[in-house]
Amino acid sequence: QGQLVESGGGLVQPGGSLRLSCAASGFTSDYRAIGWFRQAPGKEREGVVCTSGSAGKIYVADSVKGRFTISRDDAKSTVYLQMNMLKPEDTAVYYCAAASAGSYYCAMDNMRDWGKGTLVTVSP
């Protein structure tokens, strides 16, 4: 069992950029899928960007293609979500999540460890 802590959320104007961080602790070095999900007000949680591991497959939601990018710094045990050209519809609580050790499936139902989320508000 590991812990994930998101940070970097806040208020940004449409067209602006923001970078979210996900600090991981208590995880083994085993390969696992990790990614970002979000839940907008009154909406169900949805996948945003996910990677199945180092140099592995990357999945990006159609709604954020060309705008959001996932990256990682293994030395810092941190995963990032770079968000560019933000739109009002991107407003949501963003969650970092990871699958169990040895699992590389990015489906939301496969995620077993979740952060508490960080709020991103895109408004003029």
Low-confidence blocks of residues? none
Biggest sheet overview: 7 strands, mixed
Mean pLDDT: 93
Structural class: mainly beta
What would you call the shape?
globular
Order of helices and strands: EEEEEEEEEEE
Count of DSSP E strands?
11
Strand content: over 45%
The total count of helices amounts to 0
Estimated radius of gyration: 14 Å
User: How much helicity do the residues have?
Assistant: under 10%
Task: State the separation between the terminal residues, measured CA to CA.
Answer: 40 Å
Describe this structure in words.
The protein has 124 residues and is mainly β. It is built from no helices and eleven strands. Strands 2, 4, 5, 6, 9, 10 and 11 form a seven-stranded mixed β-sheet that branches. Strand 7 and strand 8 form a beta hairpin. It is globular, with a radius of gyration of 14 Å. The protein starts with a strand and ends with a strand. The relative contact order is 0.33. The model has no long low-confidence stretch (mean pLDDT 93).
Quick synopsis:
This protein has 124 residues and is mainly β. The chain has no helices and eleven strands.
Could you list some keywords that capture this structure?
single chain; 124 residues; mainly beta; seven-stranded mixed β-sheet; four-stranded antiparallel β-sheet; 11 strands
Give the topology, please:
Layout: E1 3-7, E2 10-12, E3 18-25, E4 34-39, E5 46-51, E6 58-60, E7 68-73, E8 78-83, E9 92-99, E10 111-114, E11 118-122
Parallel strand pairs: 2-11
Antiparallel strand pairs: 1-3, 3-8, 4-5, 4-9, 5-6, 7-8, 9-10, 9-11
